[in-house]
Amino acid sequence: MKNLCIHTITTKGWDFATACEAYSKAGITGISIWQDAIEQLSVQETRQILQDSNLEVVSYVRGGFFAHASATERAKAIDQNKQMIDEAAEISAPSLVLVCGADPGQSLERSRGQIRDGIEAIVPHAAQRGVKLSIEPLHPMYAGARSAINSMASANEMAEKIDSPWVGIAIDVYHVWWEPNLQNEIARCGNNNNLFAYHICDWKVPTEHLLLDRGLMGEGCIPIQQITNWVTEAGFNGYEEVEIFSTKYWEMDQQTWLNMIIMAYADLK
Question: For 58-68, what is the mean pLDDT?
Fold first, then answer.
């Protein structure tokens, strides 16, 4: 399980300490930490829990939300992202995942311009703290209010325009599996050294809720192994991060759920 990473949101039913202990006992070596999982803990407490469980922090989730019609809100978002960069650095997270945002009161083009401006504004701080910024393209169903970056092509274009070694892309199969030119866009990402992270789950058919009904790997229609091969061919050799939002699975016994994740991941190999 040396390449398996779990997002804390995936086992939402556990507090941070319980999740870390369970992951470690299961032989999992990577963890991606959502901000809400540690907001009640001090930095020292968080570090101690991680040290005791011998887990490597893969990423900190989630910054972004740069797009706003209001200049005041845009400035606020930049300040919030700088704070999240600081938090990431404090727990030795090498990357901050960015859900870039969108404002339904303005065009996607305008939102994309604000996203670029916002990311460029925080790059110097990210570089100073040693934290990379991972743009995560979201499925087009989220274009209205969550992200105006809705494909690998648009994420690649954004990262290439910013042109910083501190800015790259987090690929989540849930959001990009449908793209007709996905293999080439993944290769493009790798060729530019912009492939920072890789998230896995599945798309259930039918999907009962577009946010809170993600599937366990193998129970949906995403060609996960094929995409994984493309990611590997693009030069990525990092953790495969399981990120699943599911009311159904959160209501289960979380140890049973973790065991299911481990078995599903093993079946991919």
Answer: 98
